[in-house]
Design a protein that fits this description.
Number of helices: 12
Largest sheet: 6 strands, mixed
Helix content: 25-40%
CATH class of the largest domain: Alpha Beta
Low-confidence stretches: none
Strand order of the largest sheet: 5-2-1-9-21-20
Distance between the termini: 63 Å
Radius of gyration: 22 Å
């Protein structure tokens, strides 16, 4: 039986596995986690709208009816290309076809020391860390008597104004100006200062000017401060240093969130060392038009790990729809190979992009038209709800969203551990 090994249980890996479920092949899905995570809603965990279980589902549960599929939880440490084996810490798994979809992490552009002070948002742990930083900042400010210390605690700086940065900013404005009202006695949470730093001259720079302007206007109306055209030069536990118009400026803050870039997983570098594969500056592996590793038709590279040119020659973005279509396509190629059929090159069907900006507001760039405001927000809700993998998650998220909308409350406001940077403030 043809052996297919999939490394990574994200959008690409999971959709490939599900497509292969009806074939006469042996499928092994390997991931360091035992669950699939719906990353587009991570920001809602970070801002206390949803709990982690609302946007995650066990891989074994999703694939339990596929008798040809085995799920393994483990860390892949190497790929033996010559022997066609995936090397785990304590085992080797042979393959005839290998699908690598190990995703991406945050990129700090050579300043990895910033990660301690400016966490990114890629995992559940990241989301919980950010949530605890946000909530703890208000708690510490309630106990402070120094106005400058309070100001620093209530300054929230988001670096990067792509969809993640914009969605975080909108949610933070609502948390401070709606959810936390009347809950504190010594501070006014609505005085929290949400600042978005962007190197380009507008927010959502990948969107059309009209939608970008709409997003910026909406964020300002919510109370956020937009700082386009700035360069971050340093991040410390005291705050963020920026360069703007040739001059330096320092923003005191204990709360920095990184939303400025991604870097492919280390698997890309490992493949380059093993096979001579070419990488782009973000560490993604350049693939051929069938998503194969050049020179190795048995190896597919998918999702955020793949550098695949789109119709205009620019690389396809690292977003869920791209990964989903790649996963299904790779499975189709394997099916066609087994049936001695020819598969046409991969062609990404762009279904558009969306970003929500707080309550009842979003922007959407769809294939034939643009939307903004309430209609775009409703479309965003529906599409994200229907793309959750498990029906149970859809029900739970719908109920939570409905409750949040009616009451403005965010039920997942739990602080289970005070972050290190907050501890340092308290000691100081």
């Amino acid at each position: 039986m043809h052996r297919v090994v999939i490394v990574g249980g994200g959008f690409a890996g999971l959709h490939a596995a599900r497509h292969l479920g009806h074939l006469d092949v042996s499928v092994t899905l390997i991931d360091t986690r035992n669950f699939h995570l719906f990353q587009p809603l991570l920001y809602q965990v970070a801002t206390a709208s949803l709990s982690p279980a609302n946007i995650a589902a066990p891989l074994r549960t999703i694939l339990k009816n596929q008798k040809n599929t085995t799920v393994l939880m483990g860390q892949v440490i190497d790929i033996d290309v010559e022997k066609r084996e995936v090397v785990l810490e304590d085992a080797r798994v042979p393959y005839d076809s290998l699908l690598l979809a190990t995703g991406a992490r945050h990129q700090y552009f050579g300043r990895d020391d910033w990660e301690k002070y400016a966490p990114g948002l890629k995992t559940i742990e990241d989301a919980l860390n950010i949530r605890q930083r946000i909530l703890t900042a208000f708690e510490l400010a309630e106990r402070e008597t120094d106005p400058k210390a309070i100001e620093r605690l209530l300054n929230f700086v988001i670096i990067g104004s792509g969809p993640t940065g914009v969605e975080l900013a909108g949610a933070l404005c609502e948390v401070s100006r709606q959810t936390l009202t009347r809950e504190f006695r010594n501070i006014d949470p609505s005085k929290a200062h949400i600042i978005i730093l962007e190197r380009q001259n507008r927010v959502l720079p990948m969107y059309p000017d009209e939608l970008s302007k709409n997003a910026g206007d909406t964020l300002r109306a919510l109370g956020a401060e937009l700082r386009p055209g700035v360069v971050v030069t340093d991040i410390t536990k005291q705050g963020v240093e920026i360069e703007v118009n040739g001059g330096k400026e320092f923003i005191p803050t204990a709360n920095v969130i990184w939303a400025a870039g991604v870097l492919a997983s280390p698997m890309g570098k490992k493949l380059a060392e093993k096979t001579g594969a070419e990488l782009d500056p973000a560490g993604r592996v350049k693939v051929d038009d069938h998503l194969h590793l050049p020179g190795h038709p048995e190896i597919f590279v998918l999702g955020d790990l793949a550098h695949c040119p789109g119709p205009k020659g620019t690389p396809l973005p690292a977003v869920a729809p791209v990964a989903t279509q790649m996963g299904r396509y790779a499975a189709q190629v394997i099916e066609d190979q087994l049936a001695n059929r020819t598969t046409p090159p991969f062609n990404y069907h762009d279904l558009g992009s969306m970003a929500t900006i707080g309550r009842s507001n979003a922007v959407a760039q769809l294939p034939w038209f643009k939307l903004s405001g309430f209609l775009a927000w409703v479309a965003w809700l529906f599409i994200h709800l229907m793309n959750l993998i498990e029906f149970q998650n859809r029900v739970l998220v719908l109920m939570q969203w409905s409750w949040n909308y009616v009451t403005w409350r965010r039920a997942a406001r739990l602080i289970t551990e005070v972050p290190t940077i907050q501890c340092e403030h308290e000691k100081g």
